[in-house]
Amino acid sequence: METAWLEAQQGFPFKPQPLTICAYDVDSEPVLDVTDPPNLDNLGFSSSALACPWEDLADQGKMPPSWELAKTLIANKITGIIVPSFAPGATKNDQNLIFWKWSGDLPSRVIVIDDEGRLPRTDMSWP
């Protein structure tokens, strides 16, 4: 929960806005843990690729190193990665799970847990 909060706020000193936090049932593979440096080294990338200012680079028309890493992993049939959080205030224990390929079916199943039906079902449910 703390990591989700850090990621949502990104260290900006503004009043918190409404935030929906969801739990997911995940059964997806292969997922690569790039918090383990040898996993990045074996791909020819460093942790600086993960920490790059991707949005600024993309705005400048440059390819962020993190996107190059994602392209490499996608080409190797990796469906997602575990990465460290780079949000201000994050510690080494704060991590994110990122997917670029998922569905409601195996082998890349990611399903939101909403046993009580609290989440909107269609776009018409949103104000």
Q: What can be said about the biggest beta sheet?
A: 3 strands, mixed
Reading the helices and strands in chain order gives HEEHHHHEEE
Give the strand line-up of the largest sheet: 2-3-4
State mean pLDDT (0 to 100 scale).
88
Count of distinct strands = 5
Number of domains: 1
Low-pLDDT segments, ≥5 res: none
Q: State the helix count.
A: 5
Which word captures the global form? globular
- Structure classification: alpha+beta
Describe this structure in words.
There is one protein chain. This protein is α+β, with helices and mostly antiparallel strands and 127 residues long. It has one domain (23-114). It has five helices and five strands. The chain has helices spanning 2-9, 37-41, 47-50, 54-59, 65-75, and strands spanning 24-28, 31-33, 80-84, 95-99, 108-112. It has a three-stranded mixed beta sheet, with no helix packed on it. A two-stranded antiparallel sheet has the order 1-5. The longest helix has 11 residues, at 65-75. The radius of gyration is 16 Å and the shape is globular.
Q: What's a concise summary of this model?
A:
The chain has 127 residues and is an alpha+beta fold. Helix content is 27%, strand content 18%.
